[in-house]
């Protein structure tokens, strides 16, 4: 059978450059590969040949989970990806039927939900995505390269490339020689929370995007343990969510059949220790016994690693009145969330799905130069508006969850108090009503909108439930 040739691309779809080879950059490259003749991905690091943490992704040593919506997005971008991940040792679990969730100290009623998550380390997920992207026709991944900023046309209306220079072998050093400009029709900044895109835009005469921040001063510590069948009753994982009055939490995720990732975290001055006795005492202060059980009885496989995350930050590129043509921002460079909600990989993959769909709908025929100039910011405008809708749900969940704590810094709305009282009662009711639990997890995994929690049927279930659920730690 003769393969169907790929459709010819217009001149302005010749070359795209992606800054950053993390999950956001790699999935963006996948989205671009369908419509651009060439895609070059740049990264400051020397990328590992096998799954391993790296300097440019410091959170890669911490616990990660692939939420249900993120798993769907990666499967859409890379058909067969989830089976490949499972074959490499990752785990798959029903988040309500095979895990324990403690909400406001109440154990969510276990029951099959169909909300499926995947346990795998961040380096493992990134490794398999990177291999898929590197195998795409026309895609090149360049390592050890620092992006210095976009190059624009004389009228600064759109990008024409990106300036780069090689990094030296020294830790954190850059070489002074070898600067070059890589021509590009599109530049995507996926460089993470340290993105310099706002400064780059300002240098070219554009406004910086407005930023919304919610500061909760999260500190978290991850350690890996050998998993044995008897641990936590054979379940796949545990989540103990902080709440006002107890700004501490913890979680367990099965990264492999024989390996747990365990995280302890605290907000607003609560800081998990890294010594064994201190970690155990901290875990014993949590509502459920599961994390403490693993720390007490399981064999540690490495040393604890601590990380700090001061604030969630959202840059509102969608609200700019003028965009630099051919310049996009995605992933944590667009919006970064409190990592204890596990939303980062999922939000990045969803943004790539959106980008792919927008490119597929763009005109495929070359436009006249004056038409291109008139619509220079068309794709950025459409992408940022669509990406904002992707970000809305995880931002509402993460920012809203953090702003429950009086000490968290951020803007609160006039209706927040009433909503918080309802959701507090909802969490307690979910400890006896599995339908409420299933919806809560569907929303947390971005399968349903948050408004579903307040549907008339759910409000009725909450009002009919006992005022308090069973005691934290009670078995079903």
Automatic annotation (TrEMBL):
Pfam families: FAD_binding_3. It comes from the Bacteria. Residues 16-362 form the FAD-binding domain. InterPro entries: FAD-bd (IPR002938), FAD/NAD-bd_sf (IPR036188). SUPFAM superfamilies: FAD/NAD(P)-binding domain. This is FAD-dependent oxidoreductase. The lineage of its organism: Bacteria, Bacillati, Actinomycetota, Actinomycetes, Kitasatosporales.
């Amino acid at each position: 059978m003769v393969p169907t040739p790929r459709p010819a691309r217009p001149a302005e779809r010749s070359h795209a450059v992606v800054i950053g080879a993390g999950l956001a950059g790699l999935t963006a490259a996948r989205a671009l590969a369908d419509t651009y003749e060439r895609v070059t991905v740049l990264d400051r690091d020397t990328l590992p040949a096998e799954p391993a943490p790296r300097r440019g992704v410091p959170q890669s040593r911490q616990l990660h989970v692939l939420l249900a919506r993120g798993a769907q997005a990666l499967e859409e971008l890379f058909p067969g990806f989830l089976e490949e991940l499972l074959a490499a040792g990752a785990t798959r679990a029903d988040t309500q039927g095979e895990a324990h969730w403690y909400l406001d100290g109440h154990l969510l009623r276990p029951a099959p939900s169909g909300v499926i998550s995947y346990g795998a380390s961040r380096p493992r997920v990134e490794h398999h995505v990177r291999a898929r992207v590197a195998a795409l026709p026309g895609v090149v991944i360049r390592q050890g390269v620092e992006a210095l900023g976009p190059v624009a046309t004389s009228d600064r209306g759109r990008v024409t490339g990106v300036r780069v220079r090689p990094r030296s072998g020294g830790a954190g050093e850059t070489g002074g020689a070898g600067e070059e400009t890589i021509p590009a029709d599109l530049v995507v900044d996926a460089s993470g929370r340290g993105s310099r895109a706002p400064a780059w835009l300002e240098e070219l005469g554009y406004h910086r995007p407005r930023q919304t921040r919610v500061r909760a001063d999260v500190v978290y510590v991850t350690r890996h343990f050998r998993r044995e069948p008897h641990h936590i009753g054979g379940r796949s994982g545990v989540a103990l969510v902080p709440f006002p009055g107890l700004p501490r939490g913890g979680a367990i995720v099965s990264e492999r059949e024989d390996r747990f990732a365990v995280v302890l975290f605290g907000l607003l001055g609560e800081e998990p220790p890294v010594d064994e006795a201190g970690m155990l005492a901290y875990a014993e202060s949590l509502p459920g016994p599961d994390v403490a059980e693993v720390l007490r009885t399981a064999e540690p496989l490495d040393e604890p690693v601590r990380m700090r995350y001061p604030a969630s930050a959202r840059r509102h590129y969608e609200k700019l009145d003028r965009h630099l043509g051919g310049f996009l921002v995605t992933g944590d460079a667009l919006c970064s969330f409190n990592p204890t909600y596990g939303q980062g990989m999922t939000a990045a993959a969803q943004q790539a799905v959106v980008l792919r769909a927008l490119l597929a709908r763009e005109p495929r025929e070359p436009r006249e130069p004056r038409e291109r100039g008139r619509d220079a910011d068309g794709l950025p405008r459409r992408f940022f508006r669509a990406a904002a809708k992707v970000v809305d749900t995880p931002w509402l969940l993460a920012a809203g969850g953090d702003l429950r704590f009086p000490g968290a810094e951020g803007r609160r709305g006039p209706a927040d108090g009433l909503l918080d009282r309802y959701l507090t009662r909802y969490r307690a009711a979910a400890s006896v009503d599995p339908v409420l639990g299933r919806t809560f997890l569907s929303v947390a995994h971005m399968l349903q909108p948050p408004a579903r929690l307040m549907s008339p049927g759910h409000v009725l279930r909450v009002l009919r439930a006992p005022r308090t659920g069973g005691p934290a730690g009670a078995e079903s």
